[in-house]
Fold these 2 entries.
Entry 1:
Amino acid sequence: MPPKTFQIHTSLLFDPKQKSFVENISIEVNPSTGEIVNLTTRDDDDSFITNNPKDIDLRGKTVLPGLVDSHTHIFIHAYEERSGTQQMRDQSAVERTIRASNHARAALLAGYTTYRDLGTEALGNADANLRDCINRGLTPGPRLFVATDALASSGSYELRVENKLGGNGLGLSVPRASDVADGVWGVRAAVRRRVGDGADVIKFYADYRRKTMRFPPDIPGGASEGGGGKILFPPKRRNPAVPLYSEDEMKSIVEEARLAELPVAAHAGETRTAIWASEAGVTSVEHVFEDTHGVEDEFFDKLKEKGTIWVPTMATAEMLPAEMFDECKKRVGRACEKGVKIAAGGDTGTFNHGLNVREIEILIDSGMKLEDALEAATVVGWEACGGELSGFKFGWFDKGNRADIIALETDPRDDKKALRKVSFVMKDGKVWKQNGVPVDMITVPQWPVEDASDSGEEWTELDVAVPKMSMSVPLPVYRPGRSSS
Ligand SMILES: [Zn+2]
């Protein structure tokens, strides 16, 4: 009988629980359960004896738990390629789905074995469907924890059209971009709808730039002053983020999500609204790019008091004007000094999937220690997914954890770009990338093998292994909106 388990031998491994690099660990994996079954420390680099041909040798590389991106949109591709509005309004569901399956492959090959995916952006609960396809082994991708539709109050997070006269299905119709809910019972009903649709996490907009229609956006092609497509004298703060929900409504959302044992993520552009969301008991606050009301210290203190995770989505902040991005980086630096718990989540999708590690690089660039940043991209990501409530253990190495294991070609302590050099990816005990090459990305049906002694007219039923194949995955290109130095 061949052994049911195999070993992964490492010489350098990052342990997010100890927050340190450790040497000469071997990880025993059971591929039929997808779990880590044991960890042993070897005496030295080559002191292991094994004759199991299935063992994997990752010595000489840097081994990490599979990475967690705590803020993604699997159905969105880079805004610099097409705006969010164009993607939501104009792209077919088929195009968006095919793009999403490409995104899932790109993420997996970049070392991301888990995604906390915070909203389909006008594609209903298609994220739950995609999650199920991945869980059923129909297509490769990270383990998805999905929000389905985000909750938003009336007249806030929606596709805007200036001409509202064509209602009743006769005029322009656009898909809904959120589950609209108002009032303490209204929002509870919306959470119940999300649970019913299969959400793993509840997302709501605590604030949003919802006053677009006071000074509508300039009309492309008609933006010259003479053409009448441009607001000539807009105010300085043309469309600031303002609250969508009262504190009571936020509390209702959290209470209802708790009944269903689901974590809650709150979009908050402003520190003030993030404080309300944290007070209401959300698991995480997302973004928080501005501090208009000068309450940054209170924001940090509230997060620490309530144990709220901050997902600052720096990789999308990089697309903001330079001064604003610099201010965001400084705020992350101050949060690190204060000991605020941060998870790495890039708002990935607004820039392309597969480039997810940009978030970790910017966190480090903002003053976060490498070890803290790796923790933010692993264990804290697990906590953002609900921790034990997620139903799984991932993001660190332990018996019973998912066997999500990746390897970098270089040591991130010496090489700032090490996280871009993922050469090995395993998720749930299955290898998806080896020696830098994708494997098993397409499942192909296989003709039964003919018995050589046979005339060839009858097939012999054999359990034929599907050959390992690689496919060309459209690889995203990193084009920052501006220099990050
Ligand atoms: Zn987002």
Entry 2:
Amino acid sequence: MNTNKIFAGIPEEYATSSKSEIVLLSVPYDGTSTWQKGADKGFEAFLEASENMELYDIETDSEVYKQGIYMPEPVTENSSPEAMVEAVHQTVKKYINRNKFVTIFGGEHSVSIGTIRAFNECFKNLTVLHLDAHADLRKEYEGSTCNHACAVYEANQNTNLIQVGIRSMDVSEKTVMNTDKVYFAHELIYDEYWMDNAIDQMTDNVFITFDLDVLDPSIMPSTGTPEPNGLLWNETVEFLKKVFQKKNVVGFDMVELCPNPTNKAPDFLAAKLYYKLLSYKFNNEDGNENFNDGFEEHIDSPFNKLSKFRDTDK
Ligand SMILES: [Mn+2]
């Protein structure tokens, strides 16, 4: 299906199975979504957008594609939600056991039940950082425990689950929700410490499950259920950068891109965000050399002088 395609059009030598540190697994599953269908088309749109993206990341001064990004055959099992989850679980586990940094692109959020199960079996004391407009804590929905509305029910039972950006849920989900570890969207603007507080609650090993509908529909309208009052770009990457700096992020997934053929900006945002997260991950692993260099440079940058000027001008 995607066998001829390569993420972001990177040179083939950086996309081989043996030499790649990173695995990008597509799960184009859209079997249980309830409103706008189309999450199965997300990966194609994401890939197409990625081909128009620069491979140099200014902020981290890095070209993370040189770590190698391999795309295996997509998981296309769709005979039932349960069978899809099990296929994802086994495939993800296979690549974790090959020591790859495994990333998964949906598809709808039910794919994460399989990804989280695999990571939780392979890493001790796992924190699942869940960014989403929706709580996704239902035990069962429309006759299945593998529905998108149940995406993190299991993670809530078996891992240290931290939820950010939530602004839509059913009252029944309150019975299982651990509100001490939930950062509701309406509270974020009043709480200047939410990022640090959330990070303080994390164990060292963190898996990130990123539902694109956590973002505000003004920048991410291409989701099945767009909800107002979402996160914007800068706060999202600021938070995730801190998580990558302070914790051992063991993998992440990105789900629910439901592309609109007449607006490609959200597809590009998803590609850019994906690449940004990889840049944060591998920049940290290089002994922080690049980070420190970059930081010192910034001290004397004209931008920094400008902000100092603003401070003293008040
Ligand atoms: Mn959602």
